[in-house]
Design brief:
Helix content: 10-25%
Structural class: alpha/beta
Strand content: 15-25%
CATH superfamily: DHBP synthase
Shape: globular
Largest sheet: 9 strands, mixed
Radius of gyration: 15 Å
Number of domains: 1
Strand order of the largest sheet: 7-1-2-6-3-5-4-8-9
Number of strands: 9
CATH class: Alpha Beta
Order of helices and strands: HEEHEEHEHEHEEE
Number of helices: 5
CATH topology: DHBP synthase
């Protein structure tokens, strides 16, 4: 299980522009700090993911979206549960880098309910990029063993812990329309 020391180490790796893997509500995620263009590029290359798709940001509190979400923080409907995590597409400010938004005007954000992912956001003092740990088209990793088989030394640090009870990646909903863009 993740410890205080593992969180401190993960935060150091992130601040140095590194890429980490960590458990989330349903799958392992690959992450970095959102302003680290080189780390984001590494993640996209590892996953063989089209940069136009954009990336999800996770936060431990709405305050970590200050300056990124173009809505008052108290108007962000970030309801989510461990069993059914929900990622919301919300309006983005001009401060959100293109490598996070992709070809979209908004950003995808989730108030994570997973204790390890929350602790990572708190240790880093930041929102984190969170994309499923898999090569595009393959199933996401749900264990450190599968994660290491897919990515090996490409990940700078694997945070100890287990995925939560969700049965896969989060649902994605558009805040403006309420439309489900990706079912859980």
């Amino acid at each position: 299980m993740a410890t205080f020391q593992s969180m401190r180490y993960a935060a150091r790796v992130l601040r140095r522009g590194g890429v980490i893997a960590y458990p989330t509500e349903g799958v392992f995620g690959l992450g970095c700090l959102p302003d680290e263009a080189g780390a984001v590029a590494r993640i996209l290359a590892m996953k063989k993911r089209d940069p136009a798709m954009g990336l999800v940001l996770i936060v431990s509190s709405p305050e970590q979206l200050a300056g990124l979400a173009d809505l008052p923080l108290n108007q962000l409907p970030l309801e989510s549960t461990s069993e059914k995590p929900v990622t919301w597409i919300v309006p983005a400010t001009d401060a959100v880098p293109r490598w996070i938004r992709g070809s979209h005007p908004g950003i995808a954000v989730r108030l994570t309910t997973h204790p390890v992912a929350r602790a990572l956001c708190e240790a880093a003092g930041s929102a984190l990029v969170s994309t499923s740990a898999n090569v595009s088209g393959r199933p996401p990793a749900t264990s450190p063993f599968v994660l290491r088989r897919q990515f090996g030394a490409l990940v700078d640090y694997v945070v100890p812990g287990r995925c939560g009870p969700a049965k896969g990646a989060s649902e994605i909903r558009d805040l403006a329309t309420g439309k489900v863009l990706r079912p859980a």
